[in-house]
Amino acid sequence: MATTRQKTAARRNIKKARNVQSRRAHGARIPRRSTSLTTRQENRMRAGTFAFPGKRKEPLNDARHVRNAVARFDQVEGVTEKERDAAWRRIRAAARKFGVEVSARGWRQLMQGGKTGRSRRSPRSG
Prior knowledge:
mainly alpha
């Protein structure tokens, strides 16, 4: 349950957001704080700028997005190993283009021992 202080802060934030939205609607140029892609920008991107173009997952349009794609590679679900191979090639190419250093030798290395605990290889018995 929210405290009185949290509710007051939420009301204040909503009031600020409505004020900014109204000013933008009336022509004021107010910069956005977020540097991420808007849904409109993402929808207008070519499929080839994504690591997984068929699913339009993990955009690779700048260095920040390339680093994010590497960090979240093991979290992408619903793709085959063949799609992962192709995505890893795209990520490596984008990393070279934007000067991002990738220490992993391959995507299988990213799948081992990550925070999610998912692993593509079966555990060794011994």
